[in-house]
């Protein structure tokens, strides 16, 4: 028997996928702020990979990861949150991972992990928050009720946001020493 998108089983699977994505990206944002080199270390790393100014990009990345994580976990504005995750991972592929090939076990980690997160975000975002979400409890998000509308939003806003960020701040090359 095929799985119906309105069924309890479908909505439970969607809940698990959405919360898993949300908590995963929330943990990444938390780590940027509170672990390792914290925001200062993240800012230095962003400068070193050509995302300048590093401090602004560190705050933007951490804030986006935390915000997207919370929204996905709660099931609030899910297609927009998924678009944020698509943008984050697209920028990560372009700036860090593409030169390392496909596989995540390659030195420097390839694009495999980020690509899987993009596909997962597009999938979850296209179906919306599901029955067990704030989006479902409040009907103010009617544009996203149709999977093709949500899919268009996730992909256009996600990839478009990544392109805008890369155009605005990505300047690879040698860092000038002061």
TrEMBL record:
Protein source organism: freshwater metagenome
PANTHER family attached to this UniProt entry: INNER MEMBRANE PROTEIN YPHA-RELATED, OXIDOREDUCTASE CATD-RELATED
Membrane topology (UniProt): Multi-pass membrane protein
GO cellular component, one term: plasma membrane
Alphabetical UniProt keywords: Cell membrane, Membrane, Transmembrane, Transmembrane helix
TM ranges: 12-31, 110-128, 148-170
Residue stretches in coiled coil: none
Main location per the UniProt record: membrane
Pfam families: DoxX
Compartment(s) where it occurs, according to its Swiss-Prot or TrEMBL record: Cell membrane
Name listed for the protein in its UniProt record: Unannotated protein
């Amino acid at each position: 028997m095929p799985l119906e998108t309105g069924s309890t089983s479908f909505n439970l699977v969607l809940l698990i996928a959405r919360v898993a994505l949300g908590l995963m990206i929330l943990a990444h944002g938390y780590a940027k702020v509170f672990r390792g080199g914290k925001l200062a270390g993240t800012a230095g790393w962003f400068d070193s990979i050509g995302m300048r100014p590093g401090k602004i990009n560190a705050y933007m990345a951490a804030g986006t990861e935390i915000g997207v994580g919370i929204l996905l976990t709660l099931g609030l504005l899910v297609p927009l949150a998924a678009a944020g995750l698509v943008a984050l991972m697209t920028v990560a592929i372009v700036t860090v991972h593409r030169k390392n090939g496909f596989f995540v076990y390659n030195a420097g980690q390839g694009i495999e992990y980020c690509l899987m997160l993009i596909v997962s975000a597009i999938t979850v975002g296209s179906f919306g928050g599901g029955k067990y979400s704030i989006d479902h409890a409040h009907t103010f998000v009617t544009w996203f009720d149709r999977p093709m509308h949500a899919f268009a939003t996730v992909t256009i806003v996600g990839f478009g946001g990544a392109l805008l960020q890369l155009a605005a701040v990505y300047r690879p090359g040698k860092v000038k020493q002061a």
